Amino acid sequence: MAFSTFNPFDLSGKVAIVTGSNTGLGAGMALALAQAGCDIVGVCRADPGETPARVEAAGRRFVEVRADLSSVAAVDDILGAAVEACGRLDILVNNAGIIRRDDALTFGEDDWDAVMDVNLKSVFFLAQAAARRFVAQGGGGKIINIASMLSFQGGIRVASYTASKSGVLGLTRLLANEWAAHGVNVNAIAPGYMATANTAALRDDAQRNGEILSRIPAGRWGAPDDLAGPVVFLASAASDYVHGHTLAVDGGWLAR
Predict the structure, then answer these.
(1) Residue-level pLDDT at 4
(2) Cross-strand partners of 184
(3) Local mean pLDDT, 10-residue blocks, the chain (256 residues)
(4) Are 40 and 30 in contact (CB under 8 A)?
(5) Alpha helices for the chain (secondary structure H)
(6) CB contact at 8 A, 118 and 98
(7) CA distance 21 to 30
(8) Domain boundaries, the chain
(9) For residue 105, how many C-alpha atoms fall within 13 Å in the half-sphere facing its CB?
């Protein structure tokens, strides 16, 4: 009896753009994709940190792109750099995001616009540019947006973040509806409470930290490594019939 050696999770020869690849969840996902065979185009505003060395240690290429995603003016430069350096594009991970905290009664317009521009506007226009490239190349492609628990819940003191991440969930569905016919899979990952810079204020608040941990069935904050399997799955042929889904990676938070 002959057995197939096809590995649906193998990403050898693929090229992935990962925004916010220098730290936290973005760095973890970039490394996971590299370990599965991807070359990585890492997008960040400042120093790329340890990510290039970690990707190269996995035997893959890292292309650094400095860009400020508060403006869509960077989108064409990002796609151009990826294609110039690697010749093609197969995967986009829209990970870059920011957060601002204040009571809704006093939340300011600047904090609203800053979050919406990075977390939602740039997500759409990067996805649009990537999808255009996928269609031009032929053969489809994968877009993975990073949503949040606040795509499902309201939260407190993070009005623009909640609005942006709720928008990511809805936008993921819309883009999947329009682009599935082109062989483009658009899905999202909704991380739970992760130990990253964005949650440092919560983890440093003993009361809030205790409240959060008491609701997580897994009994711990998540780590970047917890997104490795999900991002490789959604970037690979294993997810070819998955469209418009937002996958919660939350230690059971939403099940409570």
Answers:
(1) 62
(2) 141
(3) 76 97 96 98 94 98 97 96 97 96 98 98 98 97 98 96 98 98 98 89 92 95 97 98 98 96
(4) yes
(5) 24-35, 51-57, 75-86, 109-116, 122-137, 159-179, 200-204, 206-215, 228-235
(6) yes
(7) 6
(8) 15-255
(9) 0
Residue 2 has a pLDDT of 53
Token pair of 25 as six digits: 């969840």
Q: What HEC string does 138-192 produce?
A: CCCEEEEEECCHHHCCCCCCCHHHHHHHHHHHHHHHHHHHHHHHHCEEEEEEEEC
User: Residue 72 is encoded by which pair of tokens?
Assistant: 């869509």
Name the residues annotated as catalytic: 161
| Residues shown for the chain | 256
Beta bridge mates, 109:
none
d(CA 131, CA 17): 13
- pTM exceeds 0.85 for this model: yes
State both tokens at 188.
Answer: 């999202």
CATH superfamily of 15-255: NAD(P)-binding Rossmann-like Domain (3.40.50.720)
Structure tokens belonging to residue 231: 């991002």
What is the separation of C-alpha 193 from the centre of its chain, rounded to a whole number of angstroms? 15
Position 1 scores a pLDDT of 47
